[in-house]
Amino acid sequence: MKNLYVSGYRSYELSIFKADDPKVDYIKKFFKRKLIEYIEQGLEWVIISGNLGTELWAGDAALKLKMDYPELKLAVLLPYTNFSSKWNEINQGYYNSIIERADYVNYTSNEDYANPGQLKNNQTFIIRNTDGCLLFYDSEHEGKSLYFYEQALKYQERHEYRIETISFDELQWFVNDLVEEEHFEEEQY
């Protein structure tokens, strides 16, 4: 897999309202570890569409990985122009910090938001131009990523397309293991 779309829950769907929420750090570490697995199997591009939450955190993780994996690239495919214009200043700042460091940024609609069709067209474009997706999506806790997930499943019926989902349980196991590792390392000193 060379091109991987990464998406999932928006920050507010996870009850994360501050950038310094400790959950964000664990989510970024989780995505860093998952992306390394993909890189070791040939991943070249991480693609996001710029949404607050999972996408920007995964984009941030990908950008940090470029130090050890300079061949890795980040693309941001936005559904329309002025995508973050209604966000607060802190969220816009974080968004801009990702956009400025991305290897490729473009829009699937060269207009400001006009209708929900722009979002669906963006998802369709991404599905057709990636080899698969990594979604922080748990069927027991639906969120906005459900729309992409359903569209990807339909596409998968007729095309080769890999869909990997991450459940809350999987993320919790990762966090538990990480906390245990950190606790073990502290005891060693």
Describe the structure.
α1 crosses α2 (54-65). The protein is α/β, with parallel strands linked by helices and 189 residues long. The termini are far apart. β2, α2 (54-65) and β3 form a beta-alpha-beta unit. It has helices spanning 22-39, 54-65, 89-101, 117-128, 145-156, 168-188; strands at residues 3-8, 45-48, 73-78, 104-107, 132-136, 162-166. It has a 6-stranded parallel β-sheet, sandwiched between helices.
In short:
The protein is 47% helix and 16% strand.
Which characteristics define this entry?
189 residues, alpha/beta, 6 helices
Strand order within the widest beta sheet: 4-3-2-1-5-6
Strand content range: 15-25%
Number of helix segments? 6
Structural class: alpha/beta
Write down the overall mean pLDDT.
94
Task: Indicate the percent of residues in helices.
Answer: 40-55%
Biggest sheet features: 6 strands, parallel
Radius of gyration: 17 Å
Gap from first CA to last CA: 41 Å
SSE pattern, N- to C-terminal? EHEHEHEHEHEH
List unreliable stretches of 5+ residues: none
Shape: globular
**Strand element count:** 6
Please write out the topology:
Elements: E1 3-8, H1 22-39, E2 45-48, H2 54-65, E3 73-78, H3 89-101, E4 104-107, H4 117-128, E5 132-136, H5 145-156, E6 162-166, H6 168-188
Parallel strand pairs: 1-2, 1-5, 2-3, 3-4, 5-6
